[in-house]
Amino acid sequence: MLTIVFERKAQRLRAHQRLITDLYVTETQRPMIHCTGAAEEEDARRYQSVNTVKALMQDKASRSKESMCVEDNVLLEYLGHQEYIDTLQIPLQPLADNLDSGTYAVFEEDVVKYTMYREAISHAIEELVEIVADQRQIVVYLLGAGRGPLV
Prior knowledge:
single chain; mainly alpha; 2 domains; Arg_MeTrfase; PRMT5 domain-containing protein
């Protein structure tokens, strides 16, 4: 009975370690560890958790540096940077982040995005025309378009 409990704990531990290493994609990611319980237990658990996660991240970083080769990874070759692979980015906040003109240029060159915008707006206008049945004039306001090709 005792060995079964230890085996299950070991399996859960490996599953948690696998989850952490799968979620950790780039060296710029930083995990946040939150432990609950009594203060002395919380500190001990946090210390243990931090050391474990740090070791997992360092191990994955060293393994990925060894195995990462531009010829083997078409996506890396296309993007030119490992940090852009399989990563969700925090949305840009133009007013808070003080973005420069070059950053806007990247978004303005996104042809697919503006094609999708155009299709969505066309469908919405077609639906409006059907609803009003040519009884009144349709006015479309475009707000917050910035300086992009959407205008």
